[in-house]
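User: structure tokens for this one?
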Amino acid sequence: MIELNGKNAFITGSSRGIGQQISLGLAGLGCNIIVHGRTNKSCTRTIELLEKYNVKTYCVYGELSDEKQVKNLIKQVQDLNVPVNILYNNAAIMTPFHQDIWKHSWDEWTESFRVNVMAMYSLCGAFIPGMIENGFGRIINISSGIKDKPELAPYGASKWAVNKLTEDIASTLNNTGVRINYLDPGWLRTDMGGENAEHPVEAVLPGALAPALIEDNGPNGQFFSAIDHN
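Assistant:
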């Protein structure tokens, strides 16, 4: 495993849940943390939890369903004048469960892909070139183990698209110090996972950190499971 002390990590959707846990785990390894939430105020709790670590923390905000806000979010991060060494595209939405699987609206499909895929694509495009230039980068796109659930079709399809896009981007990163992979955090008790999920949100650690700790010639465009790494 590589040393991450002093690296800068940007985790979308890190105001709570899985993203918050990943932030704490990376801070424990000495990473400076760029916290993201929908609003500036929403970063507060994670920033408070990070105070016990001797790392620098930053707050950026923006709604990932809106292209203008995503562009503004990217500018906020760039204006920090710190290189993004690690990017966790964690933030995602799940549109409503429809027992009648043919009732997913076009708005639900569009919103799912805007947040879960298109925002991820824009963030990768904003920060991967700098990682390549600096000779180091780790991008971890949060996937899902969801299957056989057409009642949640827009979410499931968007996560398949995350996997496919990750694999395709990986093909451009051979012979660089940049690795991109996708991670299934497992079924966790979060706002999205629900109270009946198999594992508490804390179970995402330490497995969720594994794809950030790989060597420069390590897995690229590959699947990781947070629970299986624990």
